[in-house]
Amino acid sequence: AIEAAANDAARAAAEEEARRAAEAAARASATSNYGFRWPERSFRVTQEWGPTSFALEPPYTYKGTYYPNFHAGIDFANGCGTRIYAVGPGVVVASGQPLMPWDTGWGVVIDHGGGIQSWYWHMQAQAVVSPGTIVTSETEIGYEGSTGMSTGCHVHFAVNDNGVWENPRNYLP
Description:
alpha+beta, Glucose Permease (Domain IIA), two-stranded antiparallel sheet, 14 strands, 16% helix, globular
């Protein structure tokens, strides 16, 4: 009976892992209303968008409310060297370092038209695109790193919509 219970538990764990893998694969290949896909094909979100108590985050005023520490993006962590893709069609408008007054490390900015830009920070120094490069959601733009003020390998993904940092989840599938 104990062996049967152990086999059932192992089978349930394997089924759950297969379900999660299928869900992640479907999510990674889906597109949003903006035609965007996720910047990493498999991923683990390590920090969400919004106000935080993490003192390293810069201040930001969002919709009239001032926050002393605000994380203006989503962090994905899959390990140094993980491929990062453009979330959708656009043109690279910046690549390199620095991109912001605070230390974001190496990064890429893509203009998707209509005032929407996607930003990718803390990448390894060897971004594979340069300003003027036309990209799609299949275009590899660089690799996950830990450059700038970073606590470990990850990519900070942000969306700027007409000058306002918005929650990237609103633009992703």
